[in-house]
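ARCHIVE CARD
Drawer: 12
Card no.: 0347
Subject: one protein chain, sequence and derived structure
Cross-reference: see card 0346
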Amino acid sequence: MNLTKLLFFSKIFTGIFISLFIVAQIVIATYDFNKYRDYAIQVVQSKTGHGFSINGDFKINLSPFPVLVIEDIELENSEWGTNPVMFSANRIEMKLAILPLIYNDITIEKLTIIQPTIYVEHKNNKLNWLFKKPINIIGQNESNTVVEENSALDKNNIKTRKNSINKSRKYSLKEAEIKNATLVFNENTSSNSIKFTRSYATISMNSIHSPITFIMGGNYNKRRFNIAGEIDSVMSLIGNKKTSFNTNITISHINTNFSGSVEKPMTLKGLNVQLASELDSLRSLDRILGKRLPHVGPNYMNMTITDVDDNYVINDFNIFIGDKEIKGEVELRLSGYRPSIFAELHTAYFDLTPFIHKKNIEEFISFNSDLISHIDKIDASLEINELKKHDQIENNVNYKMQLHDNSVLIKRDLN
């Protein structure tokens, strides 16, 4: 094929492409998305059992791809929640694929949630993210949706509007991004909360059946954290089916990997997790523990976590502080709204010298951290076969670790 013919066919192809693009833009421009505002509100309320409102714009932007913009939304919290609103966002943007719209389907190429505030709460074995109404999973046909009766809604109006739109419409989502989020985790009361600010997340998937990859992060008490990993799929996660995952977390120079599976991800039941953590130097924990620590390292921690009768059992537990290993049995009990930690640990040799600065120091070390306020009880023991302090060596020494006045007290057991 000579150059003239190549240019001729390229012009035809370009013309066809531009024509299709113009037609698609016309379809989008004449597509009245605002008529779906009330319908969207009713469907969210019917599926969650919670009040939902769109207080701002509900519009479409066209340049160069159609973007559905929804501003100022709120989803009410459970009646027992500490905050009246469970989820709010200043703005939500949905970048839509053009061709599926021509067939009356909706494919969201990218979902962007800007400045959301999310309350995740747990009280008396109740979880505010478990809705009373079933949630239709993104990617299913709308015709498969079951709308339950709700006294606050007009059921017939929902069905009529749904039929008028299209019974066979399909929805799918490929990528989601969260910008500048605030996450608040509450256990029973607002006074016992953990707050993350300036949080972000990017979530990608090829389909609802394919693995989800994600990158997220934020600030906790002025400390930056980053999380990256992979989860089985949207279907397994939202469907509360067995889900495998592999996640890496970095905070204050601590790198931790979580990998394993959970039988019921929405309620965190049937957990089987392998945890591996590493830290170059204990000095990096200064701000977390509220105490000046020595440059000792590298440090490693490994364990397997499973849940039994609402408690977490930790097996194969070991810590390497420098080249010295500490191992034993650990249990995390969740009978109250704050966890209790029980442990029996031992090591063949430990050098206490880097942790003390005076030879005649009292036989205890204490740590204070904001994280400790979220723990109900610590009862742990450490048996040391050979303990070194400066130029002294002692045999068969025991230490106790307990909570005292919101501090962790590590004290020698003289009994």
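Annotation on reverse: The two ends are 95 Å apart (CA to CA). The longest helix spans residues 3-29.
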